[in-house]
# Entry
Amino acid sequence: MKKVVKFGGSSLASARQFKKVGDIIRSEKSRRYVVPSAPGKRNDKDEKVTDMLYQCYDAAAEGKSYKKILEKIKSRYMEIIDGLDLNLNLDHEFATIEENFLKKAGRDYAASRGEYLNGIVMANYLGYEFIDAAEVIFFDEDGSFEADITNRELGERLEHVERAVIPGFYGATHSGSIRTFSRGGSDVTGSIVAKAIHADMYENWTDVSGFLVADPRIIDNPEVIETITYRELRELAYMGASVLHEDAIFPVRKEGIPINIRNTNRPEEKGTLIVESTCRKPRYTITGVAGKKGFCSINIEKAMMNAEVGFGRKVLEVFEKYGISFEHMPSGIDTMTVFVHQSEFEEYEQSVIAGIHRAVEPDFVELESDLALVAVVGRGMKATRGTAGRIFSALAHARVNVKMIDQGSSELNIIIGVKNADFEAAIKAIYDIFISTEI
# Structure
């Protein structure tokens, strides 16, 4: 059995955390390929190494004093190395980093050094082979990830390597210039490695015990989701539920490799298993509830618009002209409503309204601002009668006025529009009716 294990910054913030990680890796022989992040915060007042590297690079590139920040970064790694009793010296690596900072090697290069150095420390600590991600993960000159070339090269490189550490977050162009994924990109690296070696499991270790049914900032101690499908995860992640980088799903999904979200501080807990499909019956009717604030709606009315071929296309072309993407578009016989991000829309609102009038000659256009969208997601909803009824009954009981409802034919999710002010109350009401009371 082959497992890829990725550890986040909070899991590698100190020597004490490193030892926990070491125990986890050594407890199963199948954990053969390790993807580390850069050291994160040791406490709420601490700084992440990646943030310090950005500061150091910016100062060096601008000809300002950077030595103190560099020494601070060095001391973080020395603290970990000493705490692990390793015979390891990073002076040469830091000299190279300083030289490249002064040569203005780029902010991507700067950001990547946290994972690079942590990878060296991790490989030394475990006795695994260190493989620089810059040698096996490729980007084109425009900074776009090259999936096929990477999969081939990485697979060939790891084919005869029994155990390895591959730093997360970065790769390189064919000319050697370092490129990074977006923040949190070590999740993506882990997924890429899992695909390349045809892993049986991709374990993503972090500081939470998996995906939660609802946001813990709104619900006290929400339940952990035991099993979730990729499709359900995409819906919840898009609406703000963030434990895993959203791009981390795609490489493993193509291979049918499950992802297990685990808690480094509570390794005995099973966490959340993310799968392509499952016949496991969900514990609750819904898998999760999530949402976002900050939307507005554009309601367009025109008699007999449903008989007018191309009406929807003409309306959406107006939004496209101003670079505004739409979120949802419920419609009726004589009405059509477009939900967009308010921050994107406000600058162009009058131009869009004028464009809609020119394009489709509506009878009436009305705007409503300060709206939130709530997604109720779950594969169990398809086989359960009365789900929508229970949602609206709960919202009515909580005195939440529903502005919009949108349900796809897959019956995987129901989207509800409410006022921003009612957002938290809506989440609580839905969680209570499906999870707390389980009626």
The chain has a mean pLDDT of 91.
